[in-house]
From TrEMBL:
GO molecular function: DNA 5'-adenosine monophosphate hydrolase activity; double-stranded RNA binding; mismatched DNA binding; single-strand break-containing DNA binding; single-stranded DNA binding; zinc ion binding
Designated name of the protein: 17083_t:CDS:1
Subcellular location: Nucleus
HIT domain mapped to chain residues: 257-363
GO cellular component, one term: nucleus
Organism: Funneliformis geosporum
Keywords annotated in UniProt: DNA-binding, Metal-binding, Nucleus, Zinc, Zinc-finger
Amino acid sequence: MDKRPNDIQQTSIIRLGFPSISTSFGEFPIDIAAEIGCEVIKEFLNLHNETDFELILIDNDTKALNAFESKWKEIKNDLDDLKFQIKNGNLLQIKDELGIECRYIVAEITWRMKLNTNHLSKQILNTVGSKFPEEVKRLYPNPGIVGESYPVSIPKDSILHTDEGIEQVIFVVSPNMNPSRSNPVSFNEAKDLLKKTYNSMMNAFLELKNGREYYPVTIKKGNLQVNKPFSTSSSQSSLKRPLPKLGGGGWANVLFPYCQQPEIFPKSEVYCYDDESVIIYDKYPKAKKHLLVIPRKHIDNIEELKKKDLELIRKLKEKGQEMIKKMKQDNPKLDFRMGFHAIQSLKQLHMHVISQDFISPNLKNKKHWNSFTTEFFKDVEEIEKILEEQGFIKFDKAYYENLLKSSVNCHLCNMKSIKNIPNLKEHLKDHWNED
DNA sequence: GTTCTAGAAC
DNA sequence: GTTCTAGAAC
């Protein structure tokens, strides 16, 4: 057979198709489920105004469709109708039936990660073939966590891929309230877990849509339930899936999980977070106090900022100022700067809030030093100014990279060309011990 | 971003 | 001989 041209390729919109979660097999009350689902979607759409995606609820339960429709109408405000659509249909035949291609679809799965326990996953199993459960098992040998998402690629030769254009199924372990099925949870627990499910579903979609991978949490450090009955059973072999490597050049992506799921990190890593930002301790602080204030929304780096992001930058600045105030209470001797590196190493825009002592074993080389003490470091005010006046940011890469190699000068006195880093450290100690 | 290490600098 | 840096690997 010859290759079909991409006949319906006029749009490059990336779509997520998902069913009403937990309302059929999970027996979760439909009205509340619709409320929770719509709230999460609204929050997501408010946070992400990219034009490259659409969300589509596709179900054949008319009660669920109606509940979502009326709830959405009630809360959507001025959000674009196309961004979230509600359709009657079968998730596996969306293109066939409705002419809509969803690159990603969502299906519920039980915490045992078995595909044969609900209608949709059974259908997927039947369509893709018996190799598919093996693949799911290979990727996720451990029990799933309720509320978490587990993306799996659809084989390229499957008709789901060739005919429907589905590239991945995001399996979600959704809460179950049906007492005749395993691990039923109370309504109150289920409410939180359903919200968590929708949130992780959106996070997974966001990562996949942006060409990254989504890494579900497999080992829980927090207080969420872990499904012990299965993991303690002797049938479970000792093979554990190593935590996924962060892909090629993965080190650059380490900040993403803090934005996606700040709640799973211990207090020692994440200081605090809200819907808009997360504040973490720099893993390798270059001074006595060194924090990162990061927007939750994905912004790769400073050059992606536009004038409209001034509002966001000002909010980050406010957060940073609060933190400085707190840290000054602990140690009034400290001075602070907050700002951005002209050229970031790590992906995801992050604002450094760093004390100016620079006394830290992690400050090891010229690059470290120059990145915080030359004009490579851009105070947040400067970024604000550039955005206000110019509307965009573009820094000359070669110039700034050279700056990192320039000679080591003291940031407090006129001592220039300090011979090496150990000498610098001695010099800094002298400043610190003054007065 | 860090770690590792060859070889430059002392 | 030891210290330190710089560049590759991760």
